[in-house]
Write a structure and sequence with these properties.
24% helix; globular; Rossmann fold; 2 domains; 389 residues; GMP Synthetase, Chain A, domain 3; alpha/beta; 6-stranded mixed sheet
Length: 389
């Protein structure tokens, strides 16, 4: 057993962390990448938890992932699982020598780590730089991973899409049909993907065609198993890309590795279509009940992102004396005005789905690439005031 089973690696945009990872792996230890911008209190809390880990030495990556709860979990990814994910993913999106993947996602999250691992396993290269905000940032790149807000910003650039681009992988949460169709219409080779930290970022991936539903994630990767729990609609997954487990603290304060249950309960709701392709409806633990009706925040987020003035959206449920819970929306606006958003939504959504208020997305959440429902809910609960649009 080792008292230093995990080594913290500070990561920053534009800097390749792989030399540090390789040095740690050569010692048979795990690397925990933490963003340089992580607040001091959060870093101290994570480092204290790392110091309490007791585990048999094994090379890999530990990722602090909050999910929907807002409380970071320490997920343990083995090199074998990441390699399996890279090889299976290459069956859906080929990548190898001569290809260049833009490091568009932070290596403190699984999407960013797997960009590095694909190059390590498959022989391609990685370009390090700032997040792509214009097509010129991707000149010469063959591959890029994007969340919906990043793709929306790129589509605002009317310059030609680089001819070098072979695949743009879209994941990280819900995306609007209009966004997907606009990308395909621009000639972008767009692929939907679905996965979690526990699946090394990917478990389903497939190309998108015009008119494909906004819920479509694609077929299961080779070697992966996806099925739907009949009673709840929960997505259950298994395969060689699953993490070793999660470090959980015991009564004595020490944290031990708890293996994942297999198949993995994702807490996501979805279904398989007639072609066997996975569709993702939303998070089961994000769903709330308002006046006896189930509300998936992702349904409202997709509707918001269909509006021309909205680049990204995040919806949270807040307590309500009459209805139990009600939705509140935060939006990143493309234009200065977002007036009448609630009225417009009322034309496309059932009445109980129309948010009670729509606020401007805080700048720090926009900068985080993928806004956190848990953080925004906590800020509302704490009484923080936001600008209504």
């Amino acid at each position: 057993m080792s008292d230093a089973a995990i080594t913290v690696v500070e990561v920053a945009p534009g800097v390749d962390p792989m030399p540090a990872f390789e040095a740690i792996w050569s010692r048979g230890a795990r690397a925990l990448p933490l963003a340089r911008t992580l607040p001091a209190a959060a870093r101290a809390a994570l480092e204290a938890r790392v110091a309490a880990v007791r585990a048999t030495p094994a090379p890999g990556v530990v990722l602090a992932t909050s999910g929907s709860s807002g409380v970071p979990r320490l997920v343990d990814l083995s090199l074998e699982a990441m390699e399996a994910s890279a090889r299976a993913g290459a069956r859906a999106i080929p990548f190898g020598p001569g290809d260049i993947w833009h490091a568009s996602l932070a290596p403190s999250h699984v999407g960013g780590v797997m960009i590095l691992m694909r190059a390590r396993v498959l022989g391609g290269a990685v370009r390090f730089g700032a997040q792509p905000r214009a097509w010129s940032d991707l000149d010469g790149c063959t591959h890029v991973s994007l969340v919906a807000a990043q793709l929306a910003r790129l589509l605002e650039d009317r310059s030609p899409v680089p001819s070098s681009l072979k695949a743009a992988m879209l994941g990280g949460g819900p995306s609007a049909l209009s966004l997907r169709d606009a990308a395909v219409a621009r000639g972008i080779p767009l692929f939907a993907t679905y996965g979690l930290t526990e699946t090394c970022s990917q478990v389903a991936t497939g190309p998108l065609a015009p008119g494909d539903p906004a819920t479509l994630a694609g077929p299961a990767l080779p070697g992966a198993s996806i099925r739907i729990e009949p009673a709840t609609g929960e997505i259950l997954v298994d395969g060689p890309m699953l993490a070793r487990g999660e470090f959980v603290a015991g009564d004595d304060g020490a944290a031990a590795l708890v293996p994942l249950a297999r198949p993995l309960s994702t807490r996501d709701a979805g279904f398989l279509d007639a072609a066997g392709r996975l569709h993702v409806v939303g998070r089961l633990d994000a769903m709330f009940i308002s006046g006896g009706k189930n509300i998936h925040p992702e349904t409202i987020e997709r509707a918001l992102c269909e509006l021309p003035c909205v680049r990204a959206a995040c919806v949270v449920g807040v307590p309500d004396d009459k209805w139990g819970m009600r939705p509140i929306a935060f939006v990143d606006l493309r234009t200065q005005t977002g007036r009448f958003i609630r009225e417009i939504l009322g034309e496309t959504l059932e009445r109980h789905l129309v948010p009670d208020a729509v606020y401007a997305m805080p700048v720090d959440e926009i900068a985080a690439t993928k806004p956190s429902r848990a953080r925004l809910a906590a800020r509302l609960a704490a009484g923080q005031r936001f600008n209504e649009v």
